[in-house]
Amino acid sequence: MDVLRAPSAEAGTAADGGTRTVPWARWALLGAAGGAAAGSLVAGATSGLASYFARQVLTPVRERPQDLAILAVVGSGPDREIILPATAETTAPGVYSVYFDAGAGHARVGEVTSYSPREGTVQRKVERVYSGDLARAVRGWWGGSAYPDPAALGLAADEVRIAVEGGDAPAWLVPAAQEARTWAIMVHGRGATRTEGLRAVHTARSLGLASLLISYRNDGEAPHAPDRRYGLGLTEWRDVEAAIGYALAQGTEDVVLFGWSMGAAVSLQAADQSVYRDRIRALVLDAPVINWVDVLAYQAKLNRIPETVGRFSQWLISNRAGRVVTGLAAPVDLKLLDWVARSDHLAVPTLILHSEHDDFVPYGPSAELAERNPGLVTFERFSSPGHTKEWNAEPEHWERAVTGWLSRVLALPAG
Question: Could you tell me which Pfam families the record lists for this protein (predicted)?
Answer without folding.
Answer: Abhydrolase_6
